[in-house]
Amino acid sequence: MPELRQLRAGHAPAVLAFELVNRAYFAASVADRGDEFFERFTDRHSALLAEQDAGTGAFYALVAEDGSVLGRFNLYDFEDGAARLGYRVAQHVAGRGVATAAVRELCQLAAARHGLRILRAATSHDNAASQRVLTKAGFVPVGPADPADIGGKPGTWYQRDLEVQP
Fold it and tell me: What is this structure's pTM?
């Protein structure tokens, strides 16, 4: 059973492998991260961990029993109890409910562990799979997204209000 784990330094090799193996798949629906992302991956991974330690973001990997990464789920831009959500799952598990289950779990963690009350996510109009994940996970459309927020494509912001656990 895959497990959603908060990102740590030891995840770096598996996360990089996940990104490389799925690069073309991701680029079909979201902007490619570019060669520099992969060339400077170690620095970027360290920066995310520093952001997480500072309490301005929370980054998770969906880890399979064999230690491979099946998905990335990120909470970032924390501000006044709200954050943005971004995620991606491996091509070989797409369409199987993996992303929806992980986003639902992350919503619970966002409230209980990180004290967040609102999550927002933007997706392009042509990314029907992401729209389904967000809708199934309790997000509702709240307005147009600036194409700059989603790789230059027109899209929609989705939002979910969370119940903060005592």
Answer: 0.93
